[in-house]
Design brief:
The complex is a heterodimer of chains A (563) and B (96).
Chain A: H1 8-16, E1 33-39, E2 42-48, H2 60-69, E3 75-80, H3 84-96, E4 101-106, H4 109-113, E5 116-118, H5 120-127, E6 131-133, H6 142-148, H7 162-176, E7 177-179, H8 186-193, H9 197-245, H10 251-256, H11 276-302, H12 305-318, H13 326-332, H14 336-342, H15 349-362, H16 366-375, H17 381-405, E8 414-417, H18 425-459, H19 462-477, H20 485-490, H21 495-500, H22 509-522, H23 526-536, H24 538-562
Parallel strand pairs in A: 3-4, 4-6
Antiparallel strand pairs in A: 1-2, 5-7
Helix pairs in contact in A: 3-7, 5-7, 9-11, 11-16, 11-18, 13-14, 14-23, 15-17, 15-24, 17-22, 22-24, 23-24
Chain B: H1 2-7, E1 22-24, E2 33-39, H2 43-51, E3 59-65, E4 72-76, E5 79-83, H3 85-88, E6 91-95
Antiparallel strand pairs in B: 1-6, 2-3, 2-6, 3-4, 4-5
The chains are: A mainly alpha (563), B alpha+beta (96).
Chain lengths: 563, 96
């Protein structure tokens, strides 16, 4: 346990070998993870707890933290050596409880160049528990930490009042810590500049623009130079041979390979498990997942996101949120599931409802965005811009409406801004791998299932029945061919596959724009649906879903009229 | 929102009137530093702020403030904290 953003998750990773997402901003960990470590002959369970400043919780994540305390046999209190005073407050609270404590004084490597000198022996004396200096990102001190775990004790500490505890903290820090003056580093200057109105705005624009360009460059390069050639030159001949072997027609042929038109494989339109089912996730979506999460990981580990929150605070207040809600929103551009989980860092129920609803309506995930670039982009960049522009306007207007009508209150921003840090490559790459692997593991089965479902529904003619039934809305209101409803139905499974289903329909650019926007807004995919249900509860989930359907039809209809 | 803010204004005592040396975190100029002397608010606010180390006796330096009543960023010790404008207005600082 420990304050937010002191490196608890990294220490947890080091102790158990379990990989967890760690970043340089408070509130990365919103639920607890479990793992096991060897302690001599025994195996001990280790729990990674969300950060908290105090045992009197002020947000849901902090509440989880203080509940977890009662279930443990021993606390490893991770403290930030560069902020000793504030971190010791929680340490003293922990010492007052009847539970053995060991302190890991993390970020120890930073103390020296910050001009901080801590007398460890005196600190141990004052606290009465082992204090081990550690540098979690490099692994320094972890071995000593493990060796000293058996020495953790629960010293006899009187229960103090709030003020008495702060007084005790003050007297301890005065006696063990010496601070010498030093000059500002360039990282600190840059950090200060990023939260000032003028320079901050310029930096934000530069950061976001270069993030976008880098993501596109890496994604397109991977597709153009690696994955497309692989599929066209190596996989296509295999498919054609297989198609001959299966006789070119029949149910199995259709399910596995789909339609072969003119002796060539069209990986997007054929809708077979081995063609579209593999091409969409690997050659269209995966490259953008990799490039997006690489850039996001860098921004997270440098510590930029909380500064963006400060800059966006005033705007976000109009949407009934405060600046910190920009962090779940940015995560949502990758995948809505972790984004909605991350809304736990917001304090009030109202904010969480607004943030989760806005994310699931107006923030397209990386998989859907990759398909938008792939398909809508063929007609020209301006159409992609219309899709994004529309979603952005929806995000703003819907936020303003929700802010007016949702009851409750939204508190103000109050957040620690971490120092800029040079991102440790190991953690950036490890995080990229975890997220990419997570995509492959969770998305590919659903994508294959979606392709299978499409084939089965076609065979039984169910799609035609649905298409006839919904034709008035789909054709009349949205101006799409009635078959387009199949994509909206499949959108409940996976939105990337669903958008791919527009490809064989030979839609005009305008129809593709309407289709993409409606698909993005209409209803969350099944994974997002489940997490919304869990985080919001049934009633609020139904409210959110209702808002989505109404908004999607309104906006889709409006676009159809305007364009 | 306005109604909400009114509800949380301290009910007793005069509204804060700055003398020469005292001001609020919101009114302080960027780069100025001072010592927190008082937080005008209920227990909830005082607890949230003090958990982050913002409590009477603490020396703070203002790093920046956003226009249009945006958040105020302050430096305390080695940490930086961003505080919403409404809260910053209720943190009284003695300059110097």
């Amino acid at each position: 346990m420990g304050n937010p953003n002191v490196g608890k998750s990294v220490i947890f990773s080091r102790l158990t070998g379990v990989q967890v997402i760690a970043s340089n901003y408070p509130g990365t960990t919103v639920s607890y993870s479990r793992g096991f470590m060897k302690l001599g002959e025994e195996t001990a369970e280790v729990i990674d707890v969300p950060g908290t400043y105090t045992l009197e919780p002020t947000s849901e994540a902090e509440e989880i933290a203080s509940q977890m305390l009662d279930t443990g046999d021993l606390v490893i209190n991770v403290a930030d050596a560069t902020n000793l005073e504030r971190n010791l407050y929680l340490t003293l609270q922990l010492l007052e409880r009847n539970i053995p404590v060991i302190v890991a004084l993390n970020i120890w490597d930073d103390t020296e160049h910050r001009g901080i000198d801590i007398d460890l022996d005196r600190l141990r004396e004052f606290l009465g528990v082992p204090v081990i200096p550690t540098v979690a990102v490099t692994g320094q001190g972890i071995k000593e930490l493990v060796e000293n775990i058996p020495k953790a004790v629960s010293p006899d500490t009187p229960t103090r009042s709030h003020d008495e505890r702060w007084a005790a903290v003050g007297s301890i820090t005065d006696q063990v810590q010496r601070i010498t003056h030093r000059h500002h580093t360039w990282l600190e200057r840059l950090g200060d500049a990023s939260v000032k109105p003028l320079t901050g705005g310029i930096i934000a624009l530069a950061v976001l623009a270069s993030a976008f360009l880098v993501i596109r460059f890496i994604g397109e390069s991977l597709i153009g130079y690696l994955l497309d050639p692989l599929f066209d030159n190596l996989w296509a001949p295999v498919i054609l041979r297989l198609s001959d072997l299966l006789g070119g027609t029949g149910f199995f042929h259709n399910v596995l390979i789909g339609k072969i038109i003119g002796g060539e494989v069209n990986f997007v339109e054929s809708l077979g498990l081995l063609t579209t089912g593999l091409y969409v996730p690997f050659a269209m979506v995966l490259p953008y997942i990799v490039s997006f999460y690489l850039v996001l990981g860098l921004l997270e580990d440098i510590g930029y996101l909380p500064r963006l929150a400060v800059l966006m605070d005033t705007i976000m207040h109009r949407l009934g949120l405060h600046g910190y809600a920009i962090i779940p929103t940015m995560l949502g551009l990758g995948c809505n599931v972790p984004a909605i989980m991350a809304t736990r860092i917001l304090e009030s129920k109202r904010e969480r409802f607004i943030a989760a609803t806005l994310i699931s309506i107006a923030i397209p995930c990386a998989a859907l965005q990759a398909m938008i670039f792939g398909l809508v982009g063929q007609h020209g960049g301006q159409y992609v811009a219309i899709v994004y522009g529309t979603l952005f306007i929806v995000w703003v207007i819907l936020g303003i409406i929700l802010n007016r009508f949702v009851k409750g209150f939204s508190p103000e921003l109050l957040v620690e801004i971490p120092p800029y840090r040079l991102p440790p490559w190991r953690t950036v790459l490890q995080k990229l791998w975890m997220r990419t692997y997570g995509f492959l593991r969770e998305a590919i089965p659903i994508i294959l299932a979606a392709v299978l479902v499409i084939n089965i529904l076609y065979v039984f003619g169910i799609f035609d029945a649905i298409a006839d039934f919904t034709a008035p809305v789909v054709t009349g209101l949205l101006g799409l061919p009635k078959e387009a409803v199949t994509a909206i139905v499949i959108g409940f499974l996976r939105k990337d596959v669903a958008l791919g289903m527009f490809a064989p329909l030979a839609l005009s650019a305008k129809q593709l724009v309407v289709g993409s926007v409606v698909l993005a807004m209409f209803f969350p995919c099944i994974a997002t649906f489940v997490v919304l249900l869990r985080e919001l509860g049934v009633i609020n989930m139904l409210k959110a879903a209702g808002i989505m359907i109404v908004a999607a039809l309104l906006v889709g209809g409006a676009l159809n009229l305007i364009l | 929102m306005y109604r909400f803010m009114r509800r949380f204004r301290p009910r007793f005592g005069p509204r804060f009137r700055p003398d020469e040396k005292q001001t609020t975190l919101a009114q302080m100029r960027t780069g100025q530093s001072g010592v927190v002397v008082q937080i005008q608010g209920g227990h909830g606010l005082i607890n949230r702020l003090s958990a982050l180390g913002i409590r009477p006796g603490q020396r703070v330096t203002k790093v920046s403030s956003m226009f249009m009543r945006g958040p105020v960023t302050i430096q305390l010790g080695n940490a930086q904290v961003a505080i919403g404008f409404g809260m910053a207005k209720r943190i009284i600082v003695e300059l110097g």
